[in-house]
Amino acid sequence: MAGTVVLAYHFEYSDTFPVHFQGFFCYDNTLAKPYPGPEDSSRAPPVLVYSLVTAVPTITILVGELAAFFFQPTRHKEKTIISGECCYFNPLLRRMIRFLGVYSFGLFTTTIFANAGQVVTGNQTPHFLSVCQPNYTVLGCQPPPGTIYITDKAACTGNPLLVTAACKAFPSKDAALSAYAVAYTMYVTLVFQLKGSRLAKPSLCLALLGPAFLVGVVRVAEYRNHWSDVLAGFLTGGAIAIFLVSVLCLRLFKGGKRAGLLSQHSDTFKTILGRRSFLGLPCVDSSLDKLSVAQVRDIPDAPLHNSSSSSVYSLI
């Protein structure tokens, strides 16, 4: 987490990674849109987007976990989780910390991926020529179709800061963060089991998707990004959220048991080891399945005969 935060900081607020200057064609209409003003003057300013991306998922996760804990009887039956031999954690607190920790990690990861794409590609925004202000006469540019390709960054006579910002369009970071927040927050549709209403979950999904889609529309309407930049941002943020959900949090979303934790009770022992292997291959029945963990530990070493070998394979 610390390394992710540091890397995101260097991408965002330092010159450690210089932005690639891609070049442009003279009189390119796709880059000649009017300058929409600073980001803070947008109808979806970064402060608003970042606040919603941070606050809405956090509040949703907290409310969802609290509601699931108090309204689902099975949650009250969970035992306190022991970490090592000294620390005790409430299951509700542990789940919320895990969800919020993974979400924060993914949020910084999405920022890194979006900034890395912008730095490497150097794609220009639709208003690039308005802030670049190239001198076409000095550059020898002719009206279309006699245009030439300019690769020298010194051709831009405008504000260098605005020119650099106008070279960071692909993918759209605001769209990536919005898509990530929406995809990750949809976990509540997997946790809640609502009865009597089939429109509750679809309505919740649309309520989450609506603001993210509007952020992309505003970015395009104000000539701050192309449609391709917004779509790439949506794909980037959504892919990271799906990866984190499927790899780290899927069992928690479904309220399933945590794999790999051996309990001292024989029921949990049989649940984890089971009568089927992790690859789905059938195993031979064994009398060891009826033993507790303590009894298994007391079994002395013995040569493997036919019967014992089948027992070993059933354990594996």
From TrEMBL:
GO terms for cellular component: neuron projection; plasma membrane. It is a multi-pass membrane protein. Signal peptide: none annotated. It is found in: Cell membrane; Cell projection, Neuron projection. Keywords: Cell membrane, Cell projection, Glycoprotein, Membrane, Transmembrane, Transmembrane helix. The keyword Membrane applies. Pfam families: PAP2. One of its GO terms (biological process) is phospholipid metabolic process. GO terms for molecular function: phosphatidate phosphatase activity. It comes from the Eukaryota. The chain crosses the membrane at residues 47-71, 100-120, 175-192, 204-221, 233-253. Residues 100-245 form the Phosphatidic acid phosphatase type 2/haloperoxidase domain. The keyword Cell membrane applies. May play a role in neurite outgrowth and neurogenesis. Belongs to the PA-phosphatase related phosphoesterase family. This is Phospholipid phosphatase-related protein type 1. It comes from Naja naja.
